[in-house]
Specification:
Layout: H1 29-44, H2 81-89, E1 92-102, E2 107-116, E3 123-131, E4 134-135, E5 138-139, E6 144-153, E7 156-161, E8 168-177, E9 181-184, E10 202-204, H3 208-216, E11 228-234, H4 277-285, E12 292-293, E13 297-302, E14 309-314, E15 320-325, E16 327-328, E17 331-337, E18 344-351, E19 356-364, E20 369-378, H5 395-406
Antiparallel strand pairs: 1-2, 1-11, 2-3, 3-6, 4-5, 6-7, 7-8, 8-9, 8-10, 12-13, 13-14, 14-15, 16-17, 17-18, 18-19, 19-20
């Protein structure tokens, strides 16, 4: 399983302002189309060149919240984005959500992309950022929401804030390479063997000017350049969010089990798993680098094509469970995705004999996986080749496109 890096979103101010109220309403399909075209044109405008600013030592104390960026974008006149957002809000067809954590003050942030219906097939809409400031596990002030518009192209998310001081940022799907560090993707999914985890993380694409400014202001602004880390909690085509089945609080999304995990008892309780004892023991020994599930479980997975399997090791006791072995509800497991602080498993299964490809929502009840709901994606060739032996190239991209086009407004 690929190891992912956390996602980085650079905030331009320490406290973000509330978005301005909606100033206009659009009536009629022609006006709606014109509004969406305007949104696209705004996002495609060339980025203004950041103007270097002299280092300014921040005035303490710093307000709690996201870290201020050492780079300030050029002042521009904000477009009438509230009106555009109101126009597309009535045609929202899907929402994609991410859980974020801002260091060093550990500010929990939720980032949501609300996709608008677009006949030209472009992925655009409006986004929100919800900030929750917490100290000693107690919320001290209400969330602050900042809004803007976005466009998604391939693996890239291009955001433009309503507030011109916040400017624009670009987020790109990424992964961690042991030799090259963070590697940005050029496409949303791997073409030959697409995986739901290809867009499990995204990271900000920094400009050369920003990197130079981070270096120049390091002494005056030691927090500059520290990224916002995010992970996917709701894919575009999912009806449920992993937050719907969270363990503890959603804002503890990055909070895992902190004690050393126990080893399985292969000579007693877990004797049925002795044939894979080496694989399980290695996962416990290297638990810092293995995926986690439901806060307390190490995930051991593998296989290829439609022969996926996954086992769970309870870090508190060492007890081993089967999450699933090759099938879920009789269908071969083509792909699945989980998160650290949720009991939900989102999986794609296919069966050439019964001619289906399904999206499954399942919940771990502590001892077994229970099916919540199944959505039919189509015939098995929606996901597999004509022989049923390997994934269709770019099938996940096609599923997203079809979902955005056919889904009814929410």
């Amino acid at each position: 399983m690929k190891t992912r890096v956390a996602v980085a979103v650079l905030a331009a101010c320490s406290v973000l302002a509330m978005a301005m109220p909606v100033s206009a309403q659009f009536k009629g399909l022609k006006a709606m189309k014109k509004a969406l075209e305007t949104a696209t044109e705004v996002l495609e405008e060339p980025k203004p060149t950041p103007q270097p600013q002299p280092p300014v030592r921040p005035t303490p104390p710093r307000a709690p919240g996201p870290i201020a960026a050492p780079v300030r974008t050029q002042q521009v006149t904000a477009p009438a984005t509230p009106a555009i957002r109101q126009a597309v809000r009535n045609e929202v067809v899907a929402t994609e959500a991410w859980r974020c954590l801002q260091e060093p003050d550990a500010t929990p942030i939720k980032l949501e992309f609300h996709y608008a219906r677009d006949e030209a097939g472009q992925r655009l809409g409006y986004f929100t950022q919800t900030y929750t400031y917490e100290y000693e596990a107690k919320e001290t002030q209400p969330p602050t929401i900042n809004k803007g518009i976005f466009r998604s192209v391939g693996a890239s998310y291009r955001l433009k804030y309503d507030d011109p001081d916040l400017g624009r940022i670009e987020l790109v799907a990424s992964q961690e390479d042991s030799e090259n560090g963070t590697v940005l993707s050029t496409s949303r999914y791997t073409e030959d063997y697409p995986s739901m985890r290809d867009v499990e993380t995204i990271t900000q694409k920094f400009t050369d000017a920003q990197i130079k400014m981070f270096e120049a202001t390091a002494d005056d602004n030691p927090d500059g350049g520290i990224p916002l880390q995010c992970k996917l909690i709701k894919p575009i085509f999912s009806k449920y969010s992993f937050d719907d089945f969270y363990v503890d609080r959603p804002t503890e999304f990055f909070e895992g089990f902190r004690e050393d995990p126990r080893q399985p008892q292969f000579s007693g309780r877990d004797i049925n798993f002795r044939n894979i004892r080496t694989m399980l023991s290695d996962a416990v020994n290297n638990h810092w680098y293995t995926p986690k599930f439901g806060k307390y479980f190490i995930v051991v997975s593998g296989g290829k094509h439609m022969a996926q399997y996954a086992y769970l090791i309870d870090m508190r006791s060492g007890k081993v469970h089967e999450l699933f072995v090759e099938t879920i509800e009789g269908g071969g497991v083509l792909d699945y995705i989980i998160t650290e602080n949720s009991n939900m498993v989102l999986s794609i299964t296919a069966d050439p004999d019964k001619n289906y490809c399904n999206l499954n929502y399942s919940k771990w009840n502590g001892s077994a996986l229970e099916l919540i709901q199944t959505d039919r994606l189509g015939a098995f060739q929606t996901c597999l080749n004509e022989y049923g032996t390997s994934p269709q190239p770019n099938y996940l991209q096609a599923i997203e496109d079809q979902y955005l086009q056919r889904n009814i407004p929410q």
